[in-house]
């Protein structure tokens, strides 16, 4: 199990023009795709670690038993 956090800046309250939003969209979409791919790669790398090593760095085990 992996945990990924994402920070999204809050948009400005001023009214945006249509051309401004298109430019903003064209600038942010590639960055978001790259960010998502990097997150995916990091999650896969963490999940490929041995169980004991993941447990040592703070991941919880799957073998929870209720007593």
Task: Give an overview of the whole structure.
The protein has 67 residues and is an all-alpha fold. It has a domain at 19-56. 54% of the residues lie in helices and 0% in strands. The protein contains 2 helices and no strands. The longest helix is centred in the middle third of the chain and has 30 residues, at 18-47.
Q: Give the N-terminus to C-terminus distance in angstroms.
A: 23 Å
| Radius of gyration using CA atoms only | 19 Å
Mean pLDDT: 78
β-strand amount: under 5%
Tell me about the largest β-sheet: none
* Unreliable residue runs: none
Total number of helices: 2
Count of extended strands: 0
Q: Helix/strand-derived class?
A: mainly alpha
Shape: elongated
What is the chain-wise order of helices and strands?
HH
- Helix coverage percent of residues? 40-55%
Secondary-structure map:
Elements: H1 18-47, H2 51-56
Key features of this structure:
67 residues, mainly alpha, 2 helices
Summarize the structure.
The chain has 67 residues and is an all-alpha fold. The protein has helices at residues 18-47, 51-56. The protein has a domain at 19-56.
């Amino acid at each position: 199990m992996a945990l990924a956090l994402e920070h999204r800046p809050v948009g400005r309250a001023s009214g945006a023009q249509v051309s401004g939003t298109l430019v903003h969209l064209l600038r942010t979409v590639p960055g978001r795709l790259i960010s998502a791919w990097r997150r995916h790669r990091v999650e896969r790398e963490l999940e490929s670690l041995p169980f004991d090593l993941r447990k040592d760095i703070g991941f919880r085990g799957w073998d929870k038993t209720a007593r």
